[in-house]
Structures are given as structure tokens and as C-alpha cells.
Amino acid sequence: MELDELLKLIRAVSDSELTGFKYEAEGVCLNLKKEKEVVTAVQTLPAAGVSQSVMPMQAAAASAMSEASADSEEKAAGTKEAEQKGFLVKSPLVGTFYAAPAEDAAPYVAVGDTVKKGQTVAIVEAMKLMNDIESDFDGTVAEILVENGEMVEYGQPLFRIA
User: Fold this and answer.
1) Would you list the DSSP string of 103-147?
2) Domain count, the chain
3) Same domain, 128 and 92
4) Owning domain of residue 85
5) Which of 40, 62, 135, 149 is 20 to 30 A distant from 16 in Cα terms?
6) In the beta sheet, which residues pair with residue 115?
7) 111 class by beta-carbon count within 10 Å (0-12 exposed, 13-18 middle, 19+ buried)
8) Per the database record, which ranges form the Lipoyl-binding domain (predicted)?
9) Residue 101 in contact with residue 108, Cβ under 8 Å?
10) How does pLDDT run across 22-79, given as a tens digit for each residue?
């Protein structure tokens, strides 16, 4: 097989929908494979000087972000009140909060339960890893500050222990 023929064959496979091609003849063995390209969508905030035609597409995202920051401010106000009435168990990482070890299982703790330092009170899932959240304090669960399945941030209060 000549080099020109080989290059034509490579181009033909590359331009086609084939993901693999194997050719054997006259002592020549050619095995071509191509990986499918994976495209990941990334949302970014517009930079200064972006044309106005792009801005309407970002308006919905901006309003959602402002609503989220308003919710964060309300939660922060609630956090200050909680700190005044007890100790806070905070999330050590960003992830999804789970109050129970499984969907059909009883929650680790409920309001009014007595907890000891080091006792598991919840799970935060991050990157498919389940991380036990332990109480840093002895006391009684006075308040559960997040809902089951809710996304939590690093340092976000999860429980108030009185």
C-alpha cells in the first residue's frame, strides 16, 4: 500500500461516522480508532464589552443569582440567631446534604434528640463519595437548618445544638 493510498484511507475513516477500522492485506496491518469528542457546557459571566445581543441570554442567570444571594443573606441572618442560642454543626465541604443513610431509612437525628461529640448526624455527598458529618458538641438538636437533598456550601450551618 502506497503512502497516498494510506492517507486517503485515513481521511476517509476520519470524515466518516466510523469509530474504528481494521485493514489487513499483503502483510500490511492497519488499525484505526477514533474517540468520540465529549463536549462539556460551561457557563461564564459576560466580560465587560460584551455585545448587548448576548446580554439577554444572561439576564435569566443573573436574576437567578441575585435571588440566590438574597436567600443566602436571609440564611446568614438566621445563622447569627442560631449562633446566639447554641453551637452550630457546619458542613466541612460542598455537596448534597442527606439526613439519613438511605432514602427509606430513619434520619440520623431529629429535633430534640441528644447527641454526643463525634456522633454522625448526617451525610454530605461530594463527587459520589459519602462523607459522615459528626457533631463537634454534646447536647440536644435544637434545629435542623437544611432540608434533605439540599446543596450545601463549605462552612454552611447544618444543625444547631443546644
Assistant:
1) TTSPPS--TT-EE-TT-EEEEEEETTEEEEEE-SS-EEEEEE-S-
2) 2
3) yes
4) 61-161
5) 40
6) 139
7) exposed
8) 86-162
9) yes
10) 777 777 777 777 665 554 555 555 555 544 444 444 544 555 455 555 555 555 555 4
